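User: Can you predict the 3D structure for this chain?
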Amino acid sequence: MRRGTVVFLALAVFAGVVFVAPQSTAAKWWPFGGAEKEAEPIKIGAILAVTGPASFLGAPEAKTARMLVEQVNAEGGVLGRPVELIVKDSAGSPEKAVSFAKQLIEEDQVAAIIGPSTSGETMQIKALCEEAGMVLVSCAAAEVIVNPVADYVFKTPQKDSQAATWIYKTMRDLGITKVAVLSGNTGFGGAGKKQLETLAPEFGIEIVANEVYDKAATDLTDILTKVKGTAAQAVVNWSIVPAQSILAKNMKQLGMEIPLFQSHGFGNIKYVKQAGEAAEGIIFPCGRLLVADVLPDDHPQKAVLLGYKEAYESRYGEDVSTFGGHAYDAFMIVMRAIEEAGSAESDAIRDAIEGMQGFVGTGGIFNFSPEDHNGLGLDAFEMLTVKDGAFVLYGE
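Assistant: Here is the predicted structure, written as structure tokens:
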């Protein structure tokens, strides 16, 4: 098969790896040596929804990847070679993702691909990358991306089943036993819906309403009116589209005072700003990036999280999001794999990722294996809520 602030970011990344990795590994993976002037670049492809309805995901992912490439090259590249990032804007289209994946593999001959931004796109190119022996590190969340395992396919967001587990555990603590499940008609929405349905009996949860809405919906009043007529004690919504903000507004307009739980796809403060006051009290599972400043100083992720957050926000003048963090993890995992493998060939990168342990990322501490191409456990999540228009730890 074929194969300033920014400086602080580099130091934070390096510090994070030192904390959890054996010294011999940590000492060699960040390339401080100078690149040869005429060295052939290592090409990394990125299929991201920079524009379109999923741009809340892809835009910060693309910005993050470009920032990191500049940093890596400023520090001397990888294996003495500069890194060239080739970004393809899929606009969230699975058809475009397929076309771009073929271009990156056949024409650009990249060493690896990060992305796509959405689960639907990723599932469309999963088999293509597997057949071509091309490493794919997805920024999308659906568990089916890595279950069943495909040799060359990995992902960085936490698993759907783990997010659903945290939601149901929190509901159980609150005495909630009857819920309404709403989901967008996307790959992510469908995968989350399935996990919620599968896990409900384990937590003594009865789903009394189960509705799917169009990803382009601008009003969910009709669906919520149905939910209001049921015995639902809470609503759990699973989507990545702007409709999750509309949902919160419509619930408030209908006078629905039951709790609203969102998936880990809610981790962008723009969703809160769009929902306004209606976002207050929303509960959702998420990685620690959004609450990095309140973590204990000795938390193994804190230096990496704050380094990335400061670098991104000072560079782009906007709030960091968990979605940009998924691209951070994907890109840096590939960089570490190339450095550890001493090669930019796909097979070598694949093997290095699958054996990678203790990588400190924004989504958690990654420990990959032949059986687990996500590498994160339940402890990668915190439960967050919205208070005074900001994300805070739930229960504090």
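The chain has 13 helices and 14 strands. The longest strand covers residues 206-213.
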